[in-house]
Amino acid sequence: MIAVWSKKIVTTVNALIRKHLEWIYSMTTTRPVSVFIVCCLIFLLSCLSISRIRFEADIFKLFPQTGPLALFLDTMKWTGSAGNAYFLLEGDRDKLVKEAEVFAGKLHGLSVEGKPVFSKVQFRIFDPAEAQSFTEFMSYAVTRPQLFIAPADVPRYLRQLEPKSVSQALQRAKTELATPGMFTDVIAEDPFYLRELILPRLKTASQALDLDTESPYFLSRDGKVLIIIAEPSRPVTDIVFARKLVAAINGARADAGIKISVAGAHLSAVTDESILKENIIVGVLSSLVVVLGLFYVAYRRFLPTALIPVILVYGVVLALGTDYSIHLYDRFHFERTRGKGSKEALRLAAVDTGHAIFTAAATTAFPFLALVVSDVKVLSELGLLVGLGVIFSLYATYFFLPPLLLFMEKRFPLREYRPLPGFGLGFFWELGKRRCRLNIVLVLGIVLCMIFAATGISFESELKNLQPRSSEAFLSQEKVEQHLSVSRKQLIVAVEGKKLSDVMSQGEKVDALANNMLKQGEIVSFSSLGQVINSASVQKKVAEELSSGLNGSRLANALVSGLEQQGFAAEPFQDHVQNLALLASARTLPVSEGIQKLSDSPFRGIIERHLFLDTGGYHLLTYLNYNGPEFRQTAFLNQLHRDVPHSRATSVDLVSGQLTDSVRHSFVWAIMTGGLMVLFLLLSHFNAPSGIFYSLFPVTAGAVAMLGIMALFGMRLNFMNVMVLVTIFGMGSDYGLHVAHRVRSCAEEEYKGRFIQAGRAVLLSGLTTIAGFGSLAFTDYGALASIGWATNFGIAATTLFTLWSLPAFMNYLHVGVDREKRWS
Prior knowledge:
- This protein is an alpha+beta fold.
- The chain contains 32 helices and eleven strands.
- The longest helix is centred in the middle third of the chain and has 35 residues.
C-alpha cells in the first residue's frame, strides 16, 4: 500500500514539474521577445532594489541579543566604549607627550559639516583644568576615611596622624609650597598627605588599561605607547559620517612626527566595508575571466561565451551562479551534435535537463530556507538570501537563456555542431567499468581516512580572528593588548536592582568571590566600585578601628602643635583639624554621598565605569581580569548564581560560547530539516533507491573530505564557514543527481556518452564554483578566506567523488541485471 502511494506521489510530482517546464519552454520559444522584455524589466527593478542595500556595521545585531551577548552590548552602551576611537602614539617617551598635546588639539578642531566630530578627547589621567574639583574632593575624602580607606590601610592612616609623621609631612609641604608649579591648593586642604592612602585606590579603579602610575598621561608602563581616547559625536551606524570621520583623522595625522594608528568601531566599519567591496569586485572580475575561459575551452564558440557575462550579470543581480546555464547549454549543444533541430534540442534541454535542474535547485534552496526560522539573524538572512536567490537564479536561467539561444541560432547559426571535448571523462567511465571493485575500495578507503582526519577539526570561537589581519584596526587592537591590557581577557559581572543599597550589598558578595579567585591565582586582578567606596558593613569596621585608635581632643591639639612648630598658622587649617578630630567618633556615611562626591570630581570615570542608572534601575559592574583556562569560569559562575542569584555575567569566552551554541543549533536544524527535504525531493525525482544513493554519496564523501582536509591543514570551523557544509550539502547533491538523471532510461551503449555529457557539465559547474570562491580564499579577511577555502575543498572533493566513484558504483551495482529497468 505504501509503495503504491509512494509511486503515485512520485508520478504526480514528476508530471506536474514536467508540465510546468513544458509551459516555460512554450512561452520562451513562442514569445521570446515578450519574455526578453519582461526579463529586462525585472532586471531593472532588481538594480533599483540593489541601490537600497546598506552595510550593517554592527555585527552583533546579527546575533540573538540575549544572555551574555545582551549584557556585553549593555555594558558597551552604558560605558560608551562601543563607539570610542582609540589613537595609539608610538615613539620616545618624551616625544610622545609633546605629540599627544598637538594631536589632541587637532582632534578637538576636527569637524564634519560644521560640527565637531568628537564630543570628548582624553589622554590625561588628571586634567589641570579640574584642579579645583580635585582639591574639593580630596578635602572631603581624607576626612572621611571610613568611606574611602581600605580596611587594611587603617593602621597606616593612624600612623600618618602620629606626631613624627605629621612633622615629616609638614616639612615636605613647606618644600613643595616653595616649588613653582605645585598644587598649593591641595596641600592647603591636606597638609598631612593622607591622600596618598586614597589616590592609589582611585587610580587603579579609574583605569581600564595598564598604565604607568607615575605618569599623568595614558602612557603604557613600558613608555612606548600613549593612547588617546576620543568619543565620536555620531554613532557607528551612520556609515556616511564614519567615512568622513576616517578621512578627517587621516588628514590630522598626515604630518605627525611619530607613528599614529587608530582602532575603533568607526574605522572597523569603514575598513570592513572597503575590504568587502574590494574582495567582491576582485572576486567577480577574476571569476568572470576564469568562467569565460572555461566556457570557451569547453564549447569553442565565441557568441555563447560572449553571452555568459550577460547571463552572469542577470543571474547575479537577481540571484547567483551560472551552474544552471552550463547544464542547459551543454545539453542543448549535445543534442545538436546528435542531429536534433534547434527547437527539439532546446526542448530536451529545457524539459528533461530542466527537470534535473529543478530538483537540484530545490535541494540547494530548501536547506538554506530551513535557516529562516533560526534565532541567529545572520543565518536567517543568509538562508533567505541564498534560498530565494537559488530559486530566482533557476527561473532567470529558464526564461532568459532560451530566447538568447534562439537568437544565436537564427543570427549566427553553425554549419555543423561538433562533439565537445570530454576532458578525459571517458577514462573515468572505462576505469569504473573495468576496475569497479578496486575503485570502490579506494574511494571508501579515502572516505574512512577523511573521517578519521575530520575528528581533529575544532571550532574557532575568537571573533577577532575573523577580521582582516592586516587592517589597521586589527593591528592596533593587538598593540593595545600587548602594551596596555591588564590581562588577555575580562569577565564582567552585573548586579542590578531598584535600590542602591541592595545593589551595593550584592556587589560586596561579588567582591568576596573575586577576592577568592585572586588569592587562588585564577584571575590577575579585579576592579569594582567596592574597592573605592566602602559599603556600610566595611565602613563600620573602619570606623570602629579609627575610634579605638584616636582621641579627638588629643589629636586636635597634636595637629595644631605640629603646624605651629613647622611655622604654619593654625587658623587656616582649623576646619580640617576639627574634621580629623571627629573621626574618634566616626560613623557610617551614606554610600550615595560618596558616589555623588566622586561623580563631581575628576574621578567621575570610576562611577561611569562601574555604576549606571536608567529606567530599569541601578547596574553595578565588576571587572575580573584573567589570562586563560586557569580561570574556571563555570565553577565561578555556578558559585556566583548561588550567592547572587539575580546577577548576570559576560565575557568574550561566554559570548563566543553563546554564539557557537546558537550557530550549532541552527546548523543542526538546517541539516536535519534540509536533509529531510532533500530526501523527499530525491524520492520524488527517482523511482529507485540507486538514484538517491548516486545523488547523496558524492556530497557526503565531499563534506567529510572537506572537514578532513581542513583539519589536516590546521584550519578550523567558525561562525561563517560552518554554513559551507549546508552549501555543500545542497549544491553537492546536484552533481550526483545530474549524472544519475542522465545515465538512465537508455540503451547500454549510450551510458558512456551520457556520462561524459553530464560529467562535463558537472566538472564545469565545479570549476566555475571554485573560481567564484577561489579568490576569497586568498583575501586578508579571515571570515571570507575561511569560506573560500572550505568551499573550494568541499566542491573539489564532491566533484572528484562524483566523476570517479559513480561510474564504479553504477557498473558494480548493475552487473548482470537489466540496467535500463533498474536505473529507470
